[in-house]
Amino acid sequence: MMMFAVLAGPASPGDLVAARTQMALSLGWHIILACLGVGMPALLLFAEWRGLRTGDPDYLRLARRWATAVGVLFAVGAVSGTILSFEMGLLWPGLMGVYGEVIGLPFALEGIAFFLEAIFLGVYLYAWDRLPPRVHLLSGVPVMVAGVASAVFVVSANAWMNQPRGFDLDHGRITRVAPWQAMFNPATAPQVVHMVIAAFMVSGFVTAGVYAAALLRGRRDRYHRLGFLVPFTLAAVLAPVQIVAGDYAARFLAGYQPTKLAAAEAVFPTGPNAPLHIGGLVIGDEIHYALEIPSGLSLLVGFNPGTVVQGLDRTAPADRPPVAPVHLAFDTMVGIGVLLLLLGAWLALSWWRRRDMPSSPWFLRLAAISGVLAVIAVEMGWIVTEVGRQPWIVYGRMRTFQAVNPAPGLWVSLAVVSAVYVVLTISTLYVLRHISRTGRVAPQEAPAT
């Protein structure tokens, strides 16, 4: 298959752009649903557990509302996930034809996790009043576990693309395939930890943002306060953990993908005392207008200002990713992470001093957009991961143009898929908004559990 791709020649630039654009659209859209699918089951199980333990009707109302939203998001995510599975073969036959047997294991395991999640989610949603309360609560645990497992398996496949392992290449043919070694490659741990934490943060901030907007509109009852505080607290507690995980991932890049780190930090010359660039514009082989912290990057990478950091000058121009978008995405991700960390610290300080939320309306205004900011941060992180690996689809092994489908007409596919996502977006928002409006009942009207 690799020989066919080489002999056929690369796809036209337009077709390659169409394939990459469609994949970016699909991944960028699906990752939001995937994050909510990982984190929201934990939120609703906590609410149900708390409600059963204390008899609090507000917690039980939250659990039922969030369960309905999870059901909708799972159904929509199944559609976008199916689109992605077809795109892997239709857009990138060069990749799957050559390396499919190497990275097939995590995709197979993800399929098993998906079916388990679907089965137990069905039980959880439709047996609420048919099972004993504690049994019903336990039936939701596999939903949460399977959601996290799905994320682990998919991210491990992406990690393999950054650190390909588990095979030998003998005269252009794949031999001695070791699927478990491929799945648990050096990039798996840093990517999985970073992504799973991000998923819980997105779920927490997005859910809290909905209730923060309601609080701003004057709905200050206990139900809405709990609806804000429970998910926001989860996300805020994870914010400093994510900073540590992000530092771990960045130092991993220094050892295994130094070109990606150099692009993210816009470092061109190799050497010690590498500065840390915050902001700035990349023009040619220089960065301008950046806030520069002397020796900052060397200190972060090796805890020593004398640590040598490899710059882009060690990478041939044809093997470099586009530096400007990677650096901008990296700075945006880190900047949002710091902002969300400070927002969580604001709540913690207020709670420590007054046992209450901050009284400033600016806190709720920022909290209301925290979910959007968290989603943007995740999208920027994937831009760093995927664009930062270019021009390789399999790092150091296969270039992206070798993997793309050489058939013409990929722009038509892009147009069709774009239309599908427009319909999905409008439909999903309409249904979620309808759920929000029809679920406004007084505490005494909440259905019994």
Automatic annotation (TrEMBL):
PANTHER family: CYTOCHROME BD MENAQUINOL OXIDASE SUBUNIT I-RELATED, CYTOCHROME D UBIQUINOL OXIDASE. The keyword Protein biosynthesis does not apply. It holds the Pfam family Cyt_bd_oxida_I. Belongs to the cytochrome ubiquinol oxidase subunit 1 family. GO terms for molecular function: electron transfer activity; heme binding; metal ion binding; oxidoreductase activity, acting on diphenols and related substances as donors, oxygen as acceptor. Its main location: membrane. This is Cytochrome ubiquinol oxidase subunit I. It is a multi-pass membrane protein. One of its GO terms (cellular component) is cytochrome complex. GO terms for biological process: aerobic electron transport chain. InterPro entries: Cyt-d_ubiquinol_oxidase_su_1. It is found in: Cell membrane. Keywords: Cell membrane, Electron transport, Heme, Iron, Membrane, Metal-binding, Transmembrane, Transmembrane helix, Transport. The chain crosses the membrane at residues 28-46, 66-86, 106-128, 140-161, 192-214, 226-245, 328-350, 362-384, 410-432.
